[in-house]
Known about the structure:
Elements: E1 11-19, E2 32-40, H1 46-58, H2 72-94
Antiparallel strand pairs: 1-2
Amino acid sequence: xxxxxxxxxxxxxxxxxxxxxxxxxxxxxxxxxxxxxxxxxxxxxxxxxxxxxxxxxxxxxxxxxxxxxxxxxxxxxxxxxxxxxxxxxxxxxxx
Length: 95
């Protein structure tokens, strides 16, 4: 962004939403209390990461999954859960 002339700040914001538990009745809706939380951020990792992502996407071969990848175990767990749900749904439809 800075290379395009935009000013980049070192503060980011998280919006934290928590459902209120003291509401009277559910009435098919949840009421949330939101809080804006300022967070000091570092941006120096963004450009090299974007270059790495671009190179990966343009590569003819997929990178190998492995222990170093923080997303592979998550993706594997999600895939197994979705397969279990799918099998359960198919089984229940057969009845």
